Amino acid sequence: MEILTGNELMSGATVYLDRSGKWVEELQQARVFLKEESEAKDAALAVTKKGGRVISLEVETVTLRDGAIYPDRIRERIRAEGPTAPRFDRQHLDEDGHVSI
Which of 15, 74, 78, 93 could cross-link to 97 by cystine, CB 3.0-4.6 Å? Predict the structure, then answer.
């Protein structure tokens, strides 16, 4: 089983092709292509490439676990779930502030 993923050109957001042919940010809304649907997958890729709105297109293999889409590659799991490192607020320095390095 496979899904189509890429990045939205303007925002850089990770997006997935859904069943209606729209690009959405939620992995669980992605269309899962079965092996016998390769022609439909290839057609969706061709249409997307012509549009130019979504870049860095990838075909990712996935597994269904309890009805949920689970990417096989760790890279795609990270893209779907967000960074593995904690996010911190930007450090604001006053005029005399400094950062130890």
Answer: 93
